[in-house]
Amino acid sequence: MPLRQLNSKRALISMDKNNTASVLREVKRLISINKLNDARMLIQPLIMEHRNDHRVFSLLGNIYHRQGEFSRAIKNYKTALDINSRDVETAINLALI
């Protein structure tokens, strides 16, 4: 990988880490206005960088749930709960499927 591309990639990763909360807020907003594909595209890059952040998987579960992809929603809700078993909202969302 050329140095310029590598530095750009590092900058994006760094930016993601600094802006995780704002990205998650935007994903929630997109879900609330039913722009589910946009929300999924925005959250996808966070999955690899934030594998221990239950919020990422919970929101992804919400997206899949609203799209009717129940098996994917269940998988993501369970992952979120494996990371943080005290996430009541995710537990409730899982129970509703």
H and E string:
HHHHHH
How large a portion of the residues is in β-strands, by DSSP E? under 5%
Helix content: over 70%
Q: Average pLDDT value?
A: 86
Detail the poorly predicted runs: 1-13
What is the total tally of β strands? 0
* Alpha-carbon distance between the two ends: 44 Å
Number of helices: 6
CA gyration radius, whole angstroms: 14 Å
Main structural class: mainly alpha
Largest sheet: none
Shape: globular
Features:
single chain; 97 residues; mainly alpha; 80% helix; disordered N terminus
Note the topology.
Blueprint: H1 3-18, H2 20-32, H3 36-49, H4 54-66, H5 70-83, H6 88-95
Helix pairs in contact: 2-3, 2-4, 3-4, 4-5, 5-6
Provide an overview of this structure.
The chain has 97 residues and is mainly alpha-helical. Helix content is 80%, strand content 0%. The chain is built from 6 helices and no strands. Helix 2 (20-32) runs parallel beside helix 4 (54-66), helix 4 runs antiparallel to helix 5 and helix 5 (70-83) packs antiparallel against helix 6 (88-95). It is globular and about 25 Å long. Residues 1-13 have low confidence and may be disordered.
In short:
The protein is mostly helical. Helices cover 80% and strands 0% of the residues.
